[in-house]
Automatic annotation (TrEMBL):
It comes from Gryllotalpicola koreensis. CDD domains: APH_ChoK_like_1 (cd05155). Residues 40-266 form the Aminoglycoside phosphotransferase domain. InterPro entries: AGP_Transferase (IPR051678), Aminoglycoside_PTrfase (IPR002575), Kinase-like_dom_sf (IPR011009). This is Aminoglycoside phosphotransferase family protein. SUPFAM superfamilies: Protein kinase-like (PK-like).
């Protein structure tokens, strides 16, 4: 199966590619089934291998470099968190038909949370805060800066310019006010802390009770300002649960108003930049971005 291309330099990756790479490089798994699985991901094709593994094949230039980086992150934090994260089972190499480094990970069971249908929003908030609290305890020496671990400043113009494409679809006047407020918020005064840095619903897995069972896709992870973890506030939790999430973050981790404002900026930037870019190619990303912007345009400063 060939998926619609999201990027100009994206290559086609098929089930046959996954089967061939597994069979030639990891023959111990050659007899196991390979099937593509739906994903909101924007850089990797995902194939379930047997019952308990997943093959991730990057499909854009440069992301093969990210495989060993993420591998190192997973190996460092995998046993440290109170929820499951993928374990790296094998790292594959390019061949004559596929150009990038790739990997085989353990399959993490669970379902993506649907913000409008959370079974236990309070429990999910507590579980996520448990993970964030544990991440803050981990040593940061030698860890790279996370993808969203720095300041919002480099995104000021791209977000402002792209927001004009959403005029008439959203209350962009309100979004501009929130964005300017985020840009003007005081910077993080503390030391860098460990971050997942991409807490969208597609990277959270919940069990049948609605509790957090796993966190996947650590490609953006690293250290930095923890405000980017607040992506979850507007992407995972509806309004009433968002207030609870904020209250419990304040109680557990000392969340202050400046960090909330910067976090709101990260939510705006992610959604504003994603929605027009993926509008015709990734319905899941568009759905998440739309939901977040609908929540954000109701906010005030």
């Amino acid at each position: 199966m060939v998926m619609a291309k999201m990027h100009a330099h994206q290559i086609d990756v098929t089930d046959d590619d996954a089967r061939r790479l597994v069979a030639t490089q990891f023959p111990q798994w050659a007899h196991e089934s390979v099937r593509r699985v739906p994903s909101y991901g924007t850089t990797n094709a995902m194939f379930k291998l047997g019952a308990d593994k997943v093959v991730r094949l990057p499909f854009i230039p440069g992301d093969g470099v990210g495989v060993p980086v993420e591998t190192a992150i997973l190996e460092r934090i995998g046993d440290e968190l109170p929820v499951a994260v993928p374990r790296v089972l094998a790292t594959g190499r390019p061949d004559e038909r596929y150009p990038y480094t790739w990997n085989v990970l353990s399959w993490v069971e669970g379902e993506m949370p649907v913000p409008e249908a959370l079974v236990d929003a309070a429990g999910l908030a507590d579980d996520l805060i448990d993970v964030l609290a544990r991440l803050r305890e981990l040593p940061t020496e030698g860890v790279r800066v996370a993808q969203r671990g720095g300041t919002l400043a480099p995104l000021a113009d791209p977000v402002h310019d792209t927001m004009s494409e959403l005029d008439g679809e959203f209350d962009t006047d309100a979004l501009h006010r929130l964005w300017d407020d985020a840009l003007g918020a005081p910077l993080w005064p503390g030391d860098p802390v460990w971050l997942h840095a991409d807490l969208l619903p597609s990277n959270l897995l919940v069990d049948g009770r609605g509790r957090l069972a796993g966190l996947i896709d650590w490609a953006a992870a690293g250290v930095g300002d923890p405000s980017c973890e607040l992506l979850a506030a507007w992407n995972v939790f509806p309004a009433e649960s968002r207030a609870l999430f904020r209250e419990r973050l304040e109680a557990r981790l000392g969340l202050d108003d400046a960090t909330w404002r910067r976090g709101r900026g990260w939510a705006i930037s992610q959604a504003v930049l994603a929605l027009p870019y993926y509008r015709a190619t990734n319905a899941g990303m568009v759905e998440m971005a739309t939901r977040a912007l609908r929540a954000l345009e109701q906010e005030s400063v």
